[in-house]
Every structure is written in structure tokens, then in C-alpha cells.
């Protein structure tokens, strides 16, 4: 539950604009910012739609992860088709974008806002291969083996030597002209253009359109699913487009939740004189189930709720150099010399410049309120205490204890009152925080945990 490294097998997508370095050296800052803004507004909604997570943007590039290799490759195809349509509509050559996309799959370590590992290094090196020019899609053999090869046409290029990688990596290209899907839904293009045409907020570096709305997602889902069905393509390309599978999964989860919470607890099915002290195995089983449920819930709250809310309410935690300059300009615009100096010094003092990945970023200062919320999100012991307290008050048992047919009562067998339940929950969370010392007392001769002793409670079955 801490912010330590977590290892996962993911598909990593990296994108970059061909010729960006040359263009940026001969363009004004406003033109560069405009290019990055157009790039972001076109790319972010599509990546979001296909279940991708944007780990970070590196100037003209994105580093993204996908749980599904197939979804990552299909997203790459849609991106290239979208950019082809977009470029055809541009009369100004300076506004056109030629993107290269590479995808590799492997084990990575995740820590907060970044990922690490050989799989990331291989993906980065693949971007520099001459066989993947702008407008192309390149994938590694690990991605090729994991994706649905019946739906996506590939051409083998062969082993390639990559700088810093000891063994050659076999790579494939994904030719757009040979796919069943060679155009994108008109509705999808209209929606992206709608997002692109919305004027971005200057203070946000254009990122107010970065988060796709629920209405847009629903529109896209209907448009893309319908289009793929018309083209008879993508029947097995991933759960995002499989509406039947989604409904089945939701139904199964609902059934599991209903079954769990409709079960009678020990308190409801037995008289207090019939209670037996719960076995160590039963308590361990309940603890494991609760741990899994809480970790999943915390992960969803932290990554799916808190991060988006934090960005909306408090602003982005990390800013690229271009975004920082845009924000600074908006704050300094129209100030006299004295005010300008004060604000400029304040910005230099507050925003810390750090080197992360391949570029310098600026770290925004956090207010006390944001800091306290972040601490509780990153180290969720308060959330853990509330989780246990709520269930002990309502049911006298946590979800894990319900599944293991355990419950918590006072020593005399009477149900917990709210104060005792809250007290026990917070002592339990503190025990977990201090290396589970209070929990491990279950293995002592008395078989009573610290929170049971301090609250005069016991676990029964």
C-alpha cells in the first residue's frame, strides 16, 4: 500500500514527431507550444479511449502503457489513421504532424509517475531505428507474440541491434495499407476535431482538454464499436470493444457483491452463547481477502479518482519547460517592473527544476491541504481505518470476515457499538503501519491481537 516499486507486464508505447528537433530550432516559442498543444489534443483522447495510461510527455513525445498488447497496437493504427486524416485537412504545412509509433511489451517497475526497466529502454531504442520512419508503426517480437495476430497484419523486419541492449531484438512493422481498418469513423474524427477546436486555457498549457469527458467517451464507444462491426474487424481485439463481455463482467461482479453482503454474519446466525473464538487460519483467510479488496479499492481511488481530481482542483504536479513558460508568461503579463520582479522571484523560488527521464520538468509546490490529502492517499492508513470501521459498525464484520464466517464482538458476546468499532479500526490501522506488530500478537499464547486487548473485543466464528 506504499509507493514502493510495483512490477507489471505491460505494453509500452512511445511516440515522437518526425523532424521536431529541426522544427523547434527554427520556430518561435509560440509555434512550438502550438505544435505540442495540437499533438496533445489529437493524441490524448484516442489513447484514453483504448485504455492507455500516459505516464509522461517528453516534449513532442508520449510514453504510455497498456494492459493489452492488442489494444496498444490497435491504438497505434487509429492514431496513424487519425493523423493522416488530420494532415489532409491542413493547408499550412507547419501544422502537419508526421508521427512514428513503436510498441514493446515486457516487465516494468512502476513508481508514482514513472516506469523503469529493460522493456522501457528497448522501446526507447526502437524509436531510433531507420526501419521505422515517420508515419510508421513498429512493434517488438514480444508484442507480436501477445497480440491477436488474426486481426492485425504485420511484416517481419528481423533482428535489430539496439544501443545498450546486449541481445538483438526482432521487430515487425504494421503497414496501414494492409489492415482491414484503413479509415477511421467519421464520428471519431468529428469528435477529435471538436476537442481540438476548443480553445485551451492559457494557464494550463492547453491541457484542459486532456481528460476525456464521460459524454465523449460514450459517443466514441458507440461510434467506434459500430464502425468496426460494419467493417467486420476487431471482434477479438480487446475487452474495450466487446460490449457483451463488459456486460458479463459487470453482472458477475454485481452477483459476487450481492452474494457476499447478503450472507448472514455469525452475529446474525448464532446466539452469543454459541460463539467460538475464530481459528488462526480463519482469521488469516479473512485478512487476506480484506487486503485484496482494500488494495484494489485504494488503487482505483488513488489512480482513477485522486490523480484526475488533483490535476483539476490543484493543477498539474509536473510541468514541461514549455508549459512552465506559458504559465509564467500568463502570471507576468501586464505587471510593472517591481511587481514583475516579485512574481518572477516567487516563481523561481517555488517551482523546483528537476531532470526526469529525458528532459527537465518543473515541480509545482503543494498547499498544506493538498499535501495532507496526498499523504493519506499514498499511505492510506486513514482510509484503511475508515474501511474497517464502517463495516464493523454496519455488519459487525468486514467483507473478508463475512466470507470467512467470522465476526467481531465484545468480550461478553454483545455487538460492537460505534465508538468501539472506530477505536478498534484505528488501532488496527496503526498496527498495520508499525510492521503488523499488533496483528502478529495473534500468534502469542493468548491469541489476542493488540486491538482486541485494548478494545475488549474478540473475533468469533
In short:
With 461 residues, the protein is α+β, with helices and mostly antiparallel strands. It folds into three domains: 6-243, 2-Layer Sandwich (Alpha-Beta Plaits); 263-308 and 374-460, no CATH class; 318-365, no CATH class.
Key terms:
single chain; 461 residues; alpha+beta; Alpha-Beta Plaits; 3 domains; eight-stranded mixed sheet; three-stranded antiparallel sheet; 16% strand; globular
Report on this structure.
The chain is α+β, with helices and mostly antiparallel strands and about 450 residues long. The protein folds into three domains: about 5-245, Alpha-Beta Plaits; about 265-310 and about 375-460, no CATH class; about 320-365, no CATH class. Helices cover about 50% and strands about 15% of the residues. The protein contains 18 helices and 13 strands. Strands 1, 2, 3, 4, 5, 6, 7 and 8 form an eight-stranded mixed β-sheet that branches. β2 and β3 form a beta hairpin. The radius of gyration is 27 Å and the shape is globular. It starts with 5 loop residues before the first strand and ends with a strand. The model is unreliable at about 200-210 and about 235-260 (pLDDT under 50).
Amino acid at each position: 500500500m506504499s509507493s514502493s516499486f510495483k512490477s507489471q507486464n505491460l505494453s509500452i508505447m512511445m511516440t515522437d514527431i518526425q523532424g521536431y528537433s529541426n522544427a523547434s530550432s527554427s520556430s518561435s516559442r509560440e509555434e512550438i507550444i502550438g505544435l505540442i498543444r495540437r499533438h496533445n489534443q489529437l493524441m490524448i483522447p484516442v489513447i484514453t479511449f483504448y485504455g492507455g495510461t500516459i505516464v509522461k510527455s517528453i516534449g513532442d513525445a508520449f510514453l504510455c502503457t497498456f494492459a493489452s498488447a492488442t489494444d496498444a497496437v490497435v491504438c497505434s493504427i487509429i492514431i496513424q489513421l487519425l493523423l493522416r486524416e488530420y494532415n489532409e485537412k491542413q493547408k499550412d504545412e507547419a501544422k502537419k504532424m508526421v508521427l512514428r509509433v513503436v510498441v514493446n511489451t515486457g516487465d516494468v517497475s512502476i513508481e508514482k509517475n514513472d516506469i523503469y526497466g529493460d522493456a522501457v529502454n528497448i522501446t526507447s531504442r526502437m524509436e531510433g531505428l531507420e526501419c521505422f520512419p515517420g508515419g510508421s508503426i513498429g512493434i517488438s517480437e514480444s508484442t507480436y507474440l501477445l497480440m491477436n495476430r488474426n486481426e492485425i497484419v504485420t511484416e517481419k523486419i528481423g533482428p535489430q541491434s539496439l544501443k545498450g541492449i546486449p541481445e538483438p531484438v526482432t521487430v515487425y512493422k504494421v503497414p496501414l495499407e494492409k489492415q482491414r481498418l484503413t479509415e477511421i469513423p467519421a464520428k471519431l474524427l468529428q469528435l477529435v476535431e471538436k476537442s481540438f477546436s476548443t480553445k485551451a486555457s492559457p494557464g494550463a498549457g492547453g491541457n484542459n482538454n486532456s481528460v476525456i469527458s464521460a459524454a465523449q467517451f460514450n459517443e466514441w464507444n458507440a461510434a467506434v464499436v459500430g464502425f468496426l462491426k460494419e467493417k467486420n474487424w476487431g471482434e477479438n481485439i480487446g475487452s474495450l470493444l466487446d460490449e457483451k463481455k463488459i456486460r458479463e463482467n459487470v453482472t458477475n461482479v454485481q452477483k459476487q457483491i450481492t452474494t457476499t453482503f447478503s450472507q448472514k454474519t455469525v452475529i446474525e446466525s448464532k446466539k452469543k452463547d454459541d460463539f467460538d473464538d475464530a481459528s488462526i487460519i480463519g482469521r488469516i483467510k479473512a485478512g487476506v481477502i480484506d487486503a485484496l479488496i482494500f488494495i484494489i479499492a485504494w488503487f482505483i481511488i488513488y489512480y482513477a479518482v485522486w490523480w484526475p481530481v488533483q490535476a483539476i482542483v490543484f493543477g498539474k504536479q509536473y510541468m514541461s519547460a514549455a508549459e512552465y513558460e506559458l504559465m509564467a508568461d500568463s502570471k507576468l503579463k501586464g505587471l510593472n517592473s517591481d511587481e514583475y520582479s516579485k512574481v518572477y522571484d516567487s516563481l523561481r523560488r517555488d517551482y523546483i527544476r528537476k531532470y526526469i527521464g529525458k528532459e527537465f520538468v518543473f515541480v509545482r509546490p503543494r498547499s498544506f491541504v493538498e499535501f495532507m490529502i496526498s499523504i493519506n492517499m499514498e499511505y492510506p492508513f486513514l482510509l484503511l481505518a475508515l474501511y474497517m470501521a464502517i463495516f464493523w459498525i454496519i455488519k459487525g464484520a468486514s467483507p473478508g470476515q463475512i466470507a470467512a464466517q467470522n465476526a467481531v464482538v465484545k468480550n461478553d458476546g454483545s455487538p460492537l457499538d460505534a465508538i468501539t468499532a472506530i477505536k478498534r479500526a484505528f488501532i488496527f490501522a496503526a498496527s498495520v503501519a508499525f510492521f503488523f506488530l499488533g496483528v502478529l500478537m495473534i500468534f502469542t499464547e493468548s491469541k489476542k491481537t493488540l486491538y482486541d486487548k485494548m478494545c475488549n473485543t474478540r473475533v468469533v466464528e
